[in-house]
Specification:
The protein is of the alpha+beta class and 282 residues long. It has eight helices and 15 strands. It is globular, with a radius of gyration of 19 Å. It binds N-(5'-phosphopyridoxyl)-D-alanine. N-(5'-phosphopyridoxyl)-D-alanine (PDD) is lined by residues 35, 154, 180, 183-185, 205, 207-210, 243-246.
């Protein structure tokens, strides 16, 4: 089956799909995106992704490209045309095409691209044995709550992690606290059994998976606190894990090469992964 992309109102063969060279996404990274998981052909937490998309667009004063109903239709259609049962949908909206000028164009219509592909998710070994993260300084801007396509520090950080043989890089703010991974949210379980993740302020992206885990945590009545935690505290933690649309919940067993807890995936991490998997497979 050949791949199909949606570009500004048309379904086109993936290899021919293109946007204009003066698209502001291409020239200024002036756009936003969402990655939504597809399980059994269904979009996971679609409403939350659409809500976050609205918020990102609103914060950047980019016009809505189409109604939620139309967006849902296009996403479903792209999933269907690509025969994706388990994978992802990628949706990107930019401010549109206009002669290069930093200030907003007056009459550009937003550009929209939707693609979908099958993905396998994290390797079973990573789930069973856990993964390693490295730490590095958070070099990003002050509005990490906006899901902007401007991802240079994130890709540099991820590449540094790969070169170090790690799965992810945890970014550290000026106070020595962990903000988040380059494409994932960060969590720890303290020695006292307290589940900790950073509050969703402008220093992190409020992950849809993060919110789904918080729902599970609330339902199960687990002890939980939203507060910053330092790199040192993470290294001393009983458990650590990360969450995202593409990784779900993955145990972190090494930070900068040092084992977390006993160096094996923690009990609460495993429980939360299972609960989340159960929820999205429904
Ligand atoms: N990344 N933090 C950052 C910086 C992210 O880019 C992401 C998502 C997350 C987790 O958010 P969610 O649970 O909504 O996926 C946290 C996506 C998957 C990506 O860029 O591919």
């Amino acid at each position: 089956m050949s791949r199909i992309a949606y570009v500004n109102g048309r379904y086109v063969p993936h290899r021919e799909a293109a946007v204009h060279i003066e698209d502001r996404g291409y020239q200024f990274a002036d756009g936003v995106y969402e990655v939504t998981a597809v399980r059994g052909g269904r979009l996971v937490d679609e409403e939350r992704h659409l809500k976050r998309l609205d918020r990102s667009l609103g914060e950047l004063k980019i016009a809505q490209p189409m109604s939620h109903a139309a967006l849902k239709f296009v996403c479903r259609e792209v999933v269907r045309r690509n025969g994706v049962r388990d994978g992802i949908v990628y949706l990107q909206v930019t401010r549109g095409v206009a002669p290069r000028d930093h200030s907003f164009p007056k009459d550009a219509a937003p550009s929209i691209v939707v693609t979908s592909r099958r993905t396998k998710g994290a390797p079973q070994k990573s789930v069973d044995e856990g993964i390693g993260v490295i730490s590095l300084p958070d070099q990003r801007w002050a509005r990490c709550d906006i899901k902007s396509i401007s991802l240079l520090p994130n890709i540099l950080g991820k590449q540094q992690a790969r070169e170090a043989g790690a799965y992810e890089a945890w970014q550290i703010d000026r106070d020595g606290n962990v903000t988040e991974g380059t494409s994932t949210n960060a969590w720890i379980v303290t020695g006292r059994g307290e589940l900790v993740t950073r509050r969703a302020d402008s220093t992190i992206l409020n992950g849809v998976t993060r919110l789904a885990i918080l729902d599970i945590v609330a339902r199960q009545g687990l002890t939980f606190v939203e507060r910053p935690f330092s790199l040192a505290e993470a290294k001393e933690a009983r458990e650590a894990f990360l969450t995202s649309t593409t990784s779900f919940v993955l145990p972190v067993v090494l930070i900068d090469g040092e084992p977390v807890g006993d160096g094996r995936p923690g009990e609460l991490t495993r429980k939360l992964r299972a609960a989340y998997a159960g929820q999205i497979e429904q």
